[in-house]
Amino acid sequence: MNSWIETPSQSDFPIQNLPFGIATIPSGKTVAVTRIGDTVIDLAKLEQMGILNNSGFDFGEVFGQPVLNQFIDLGKEAHRALRRRLQEIFSDTNKDQNQKDTLKTSAFHSIDSVTMRMPVKVSDYTDFYSSIEHATNVGKMFRDPANALLPNWRHLPVGYHGRASSIVVSGTDVHRPNGQTLPPGADQPVFGPTRMFDFELEMAFVVGKSTQLGESVSAAQAEDYIFGFLLFNDLSARDIQSWEYVPLGPFLSKNFGSVVSPWIVTLEALEPFRVKGPVQDPEVLPYLRTGGLRNFDIQLEVMIRPDKGEENLVCSSNFRHMYWNICQQLAHHTVNGCNITTGDLYASGTISGPEPGSYGSMLELTWRGTNPLTLNDGSSRKFIEDHDTMIIRGFCEKDGLRIGFGECKTKALPSR
Questions:
Q1: Considering 79, 109, 134, 333, which one is annotated as catalytic?
Q2: Looking at the domain covering 125-413, what would its CATH class be?
Q3: Is the pTM of this model over 0.85?
Q4: Domain 21-116 has CATH 1.10.3130.10
Q5: Phi first, then psi: what are they for 393, rounded to 5°?
Q6: pLDDT tens across 2-17, in order?
Q7: Which end of the chain has the smaller Cβ count within 10 Å, N or C?
Q8: Do 5 and 36 meet the contact criterion of CB atoms below 8 Å apart?
Q9: Burial, 61: exposed, middle or buried (Cβ in 10 Å; 0-12, 13-18, 19+)?
């Protein structure tokens, strides 16, 4: 399938993708949008024009809302029907030239002319710890190299409830956080800005269906409750984290900012890129068992760009490495009756692969600062420095089809 909308070669956004986002368009209105190539398409305008009538659903005013939650709440049938109708309209099999001309003048905007916004209102956010390579590396650094994984790690998807209010959209800069740290050799903590500002390469899924308190979602049903994926950068302050995380886990080291990409890519768009996950040993408990292909072959990379400098590739990883898949994460999260809400975010945890170049954080890439990275300009990095820009990109590619997420970008600003 090809589109009559010009789509650059190697674009993340062919007609098979059709991601969803929220944008402020040149008129000043903030509306729901999709994207083909570098063309942003105003869904509210399509609904007003009656072009979506043949989808089989009345979308009403959902595309005029400042977040996608109401649209997502319509359910999977509505999402799939809209995708089918959009593909009919924008496929090169559409020969209605009058319709095309009207759409170009009324509903199309170049990507450079819009401002992308947070795509959903996030009521709750949970961060998992689902990469066995990452958990092993951290265990080796902070605990016992011979027993890096804690006894529970292979039995359940470890996670913690994070801070929803500080999740921001790509392009938002984040200040270096302040907090308590314990300097090496000291017996008393000090207060000040973190010296170990770090990124965490992650994916996050968006909840697509709410439940009531007391309900649980089975692993077999979990994908019915998942709308799609975003890129996710869970910014971290490693020295603050190492001082505060015992006994209850991360707090100030994680809640100062997390960054998402603006486009939500649906599970339907990712269907061709399903793969098997790692073998889980020992066998998990019955409520966590899943069948079929539940991981996704999403190629990921992290770039660091110094102030006024060039991009430096520092990490190449893949979402397929995740030990715990999204169905297991959601099943475990709800097995105790915890209710979930449309728009909630569930992040994967740092995605590290088996090789040093695939480690998904500066903590691992520099092995806690003992092996600094050298950038193209000759400077070195143990952790992120002020005015460095972190850029995460992700895409799937198979049989000539590429489905991507765009980028998740943020600059580290000095502490306040």
A1: 134
A2: alpha beta
A3: yes
A4: no
A5: -130, 150
A6: 999 999 999 999 999 9
A7: C
A8: yes
A9: exposed
